[in-house]
Amino acid sequence: MREGDAKRWELPPGRAEEAFEDKKPLYTPAEALAEANRCLYCSGAPCIQACPTGIDVPTFIRKIGTGNLKGAARTILSANLLGQSCAQVCPVEVLCAGSCVYTGWGREPIAIGRLQRYAVETTLSSHPALFQAKQPTGKRIALVGSGPASIAAAGLLALEGHTCLLYERKALPGGLNTLGIAPYKLKGPEALQELEWVLSLGRIEVRTGIEVVETASGPGQVSATGLLATHDAVFLGLGLGADARLGIPGEQGEGVHGATHLIERLKTDPGLTLEGVRRALVIGGGNTALDIAHELALLGVEVAMVYRRSEQEMGGYVHELDAARLDGVRLLENRQPVEILREDGRVVAMRLAFLAEGKPLPGAGETLPTDLVAVAIGQDRATHVARAFAGVALDERGRVKVDPLTHRTGNPKVWSGGDCVNGGKEVVNAVAEAKLAVRDIQRYLAGE
Ligand SMILES: Cc1cc2nc3c(=O)[nH]c(=O)nc-3n(C[C@H](O)[C@H](O)[C@H](O)COP(=O)(O)OP(=O)(O)OC[C@H]3O[C@@H](n4cnc5c(N)ncnc54)[C@H](O)[C@@H]3O)c2cc1C
Ligand code: SF4
After folding, report:
1. Which of 23, 60, 286, 329 is the most buried (most CB within 10 A)?
2. Is 285 inside a domain boundary?
3. By alpha-carbon position, which residue is closest to atom 14 of ligand 1?
4. Which atom in ligand 1 lies closest to the alpha carbon of residue 186?
């Protein structure tokens, strides 16, 4: 961490996210040992295959069992540099723990995420210097965006001795790790702390408040061609764009929020108040909809999710829906928003149409009172700037096109990974894609 960075990236006190309890707090040593001792150290362990970054789960768990925490952390972080945040945010239920042999037997799987958190968090708090960067190579890499994809790529490239410059348009670095993840899993300061650890690995600089654009027209902007000319390679970790809108009457104005925008405010803005918000409607059926619904419910709001299809067709994880329901979230299926009703400008209700097999049932619907509407029906793409790098193409859904094995784009000096390539997956996928890109950048810089 450089002098001044911590202050620059400090989050102000009084944020709503501070009210959330950690759903899976750090294990005590006794808890970790007991859980580690349940692992069967399976040969051909399915939990390794299920991890997009290929963490050697049985090996790190065995190291915890023998008291070698530093070794456990090294095993994890050498496969996944963001092993700390992934331990807290990974949907382990559908990845490693979901494939644990215990799950197949109908028994409680090994709590792999919690053991991973225990090993990494405990180790890095006392031994942050786990890895040593190679001698400086003099090569400069530009990374556009500072989310998990770019952070993981920068950390790996810095360990190879390259200088990395991350350009981030927002005031805070970290992408959705800092601004989007549900605060009962990971809070903003924890994400920033992990970022600072990655920065400590080598020559990495984060330039916040700088947007990479096609043609720069003032301070706060740099052009794509300028980046290409002044760096040996470029990595695009652009993520996704703004929340999509419903396009119905009454949507404009106070009280109707894009879900990721509202989540970001809960995590960063002490000025956000939910005073007077007793009821909320969340529109959508994906994980972002589940997250904002669950977060509002935990803040004491009465929340219903409005989804246009049936529960079985929802994009969100079943375990997240179950958890949200336990905290009071209701699901209203086969309904479509028609109009948001206001009184003196204030949101008071929403008119919904009933659907059958995705089609409105003529004349059938209801009006539900609400004080707030959160719209979680997807995000636009933020990838248009990618086209400004000659040769980089987008697919028909606006995702950056790459070679799936190398993550190189159509421009031989430009790589890409994370949500802007996969259309929106998990943090661990962003890390896995960054690893592939870095391997190929290394080959390119070595002249292979
Ligand atoms: C609400 C929400 C909850 C989520 N919860 C989880 C979870 O619990 N577990 C999990 O594993 N995953 C979760 N995800 C998904 C996860 O956050 C993403 O998969 C991951 O952050 C992708 O990383 P990324 O680096 O590709 O993109 P991002 O994290 O989006 O980072 C991209 C960064 O690039 C910046 N940027 C974009 N364009 C430019 C430009 N032109 N110039 C400069 N900067 C630019 C953006 O400002 C942003 O900071 C969640 C996503 C959302 C929306
Ligand atoms: S599948 Fe489960 S029991 Fe087997 S090694 Fe992985 S975590 Fe341990």
Report:
1. 60
2. yes
3. 426
4. 8
CA of 21 to the centre of ligand 2 (A): 28
148 CB within 6 A, ligand 1: yes
What are the beta bridge partners of residue 206?
166
Phi, psi of 286 (to 5 degrees): -95, -170
For residue 96, the ligand closest to its alpha carbon is: 2
Q: How far apart are CA 412 and CA 387, in angstroms?
A: 14
CB 226 within 8 A of CB 216: yes
Main-chain dihedrals φ then ψ at residue 182, nearest 5 degrees: -55, 130
End residue of a domain, out of 328, 344, 378: 378
Closest ligand (CA of 51)? 2
CATH assignment at residue 111 = 1.10.1060.10
pLDDT band at 357 (very low <50, low <70, confident <90, very high): confident
Q: How confident is the model at residue 358 (pLDDT cuts 50, 70, 90)?
A: confident
Q: Is residue 12 part of a domain?
A: no
Shared domain for 119 and 188, answered yes or no, is no
The secondary structure of residue 385, as a DSSP letter, is G
Q: What is the mean pLDDT of residues 230-235?
A: 98
Same domain, 33 and 157: no
Q: Structurally, how many domains does the chain consist of?
A: 3
Residues 163, 39 share a domain: no
* 40, 110: one domain: yes
Please give the angle made by the CA atoms of 395, 397 and 401, to the nearest 5 degrees. 30
φ, ψ at 237 (rounded to 5°)? -120, 70
The verdict on residue 327 lying in a domain is yes
Q: Which domain holds residue 309?
A: 243-378
Q: Is the CB of 284 under 6 A from ligand 1?
A: no
Closest residue CA from atom 12 of ligand 1: 426
∠ CA(19), CA(21), CA(23), 5° rounding? Answer: 150
Alpha-carbon distance of 31 to 65, in angstroms, equals 11
Please report, for the domain that includes residue 350, its CATH number: 3.50.50.60
pLDDT at position 74 is 98
Question: In a mutational test of the pocket of ligand 2, which residue from 101, 103, 108 has the highest number of ligand atoms less than 8 Å from its CB?
Answer: 101
